[in-house]
Amino acid sequence: MIYQKKLKTHITVFLILLLVFMTPFTAGCIEPGQGKFRMDIWILKTDAAGAMEWLAVIDDDPNNRGEAFLQTSDGGYAIAGTGTDPRQNGPVPSIFLLDKNGNTRPDIPLGNPPDYGSSIASAPDNGYVITSYSGTMFRVAENGTVLWSTPFNAGGDWGEVIRVPEGGYAVTAGNRVVRVNENGTIAWTTGFEMDRNTTKIIAGPAGEIVTGGIDGADVWIARLKPDGGILFNTTLKSISPASLNFIRFSPQGTYEVVYGSNAYRGDERTGRWISNISKTSITTDGSLVRNSVVNVSRIITATDDGGYAYVGFSD
């Protein structure tokens, strides 16, 4: 069933924006008497003042799962996630589409099961590029036609994909970054140490690519030339296992990195998990210029005024 509900309730704008834009678009429920886990996809729209305009839920598929999304040129939305193969053989990467009013359009299933959609980027002519967990990149036209698919011959959470301003795409995968041309051919691959895992990627203002991830308990950041050469490779030390939450090019001309770590403090009676979130600024040559502990959660996005908005939860 797919449904849409008009809402008039007003609540804090930052909370709603982050629930919409940064968390996985899933709301699972256990069906009484069956014990089967289902995943639903939902998206919530607010106006600039934080008033909710509509809520759309897609729950007609037991494999429904949303991982990332973007706004389309006509004001609608495209969600990268997982649906069911048309032949009902299992889960496949899918693009779920909504118009600007939250009305659903026919979804676009891709590839062969079992596989799962992981990330999405816009493409020329209002099309899309989507990556899958099996290690395949799909180029899809606006009408749903698959123009090409490029396998990378390696599975395991092929993650975030971005469109490069000069043309083509870049994707994180394991300990590598792969640059793909507009026709689907691989332009170059840059590898890092085997124990490093790439999880985040952005395109810089000078054609460079900045990526990073986890190295043991630490976080690392690397800046690549347009041809894939490494300009710097910097490690940010952590006293406990960390996670890289966010990278952006700041208005001050530095790279801002937000990362967190979790540590257990106390004994069996008084112990609790403590989360520490840090923001570090790195110059374009890899030098650290400042570091501070910030009172934010790991679910975070940049705002147009140079700040951040975030949301979290407690249990």
SSE map:
Blueprint: E1 2-6, H1 13-21, E2 29-30, E3 37-38, E4 41-46, E5 52-58, E6 65-71, E7 77-84, E8 91-98, E9 104-109, E10 117-123, E11 127-132, E12 136-140, E13 146-151, E14 161-163, E15 169-173, E16 176-180, E17 186-191, E18 196-203, E19 209-215, E20 218-224, E21 230-236, E22 242-249, E23 255-265, E24 272-282, E25 288-294, E26 299-302, E27 308-311
Can you describe what's shown?
By secondary structure, the chain is mostly beta strands. It is 3% helix and 53% strand. It contains one helix and 27 strands. It has one helix spanning 13-21; strands spanning 2-6, 29-30, 37-38, 41-46, 52-58, 65-71, 77-84, 91-98, 104-109, 117-123, 127-132, 136-140, 146-151, 161-163, 169-173, 176-180, 186-191, 196-203, 209-215, 218-224, 230-236, 242-249, 255-265, 272-282, 288-294, 299-302, 308-311. The strands form eight sheets. Strands 6-7-8-9 form a four-stranded antiparallel beta sheet, with no helix packed on it. The protein is globular and about 50 Å long. The two termini are 31 Å apart. The model is unreliable at 1-35 (pLDDT under 50).
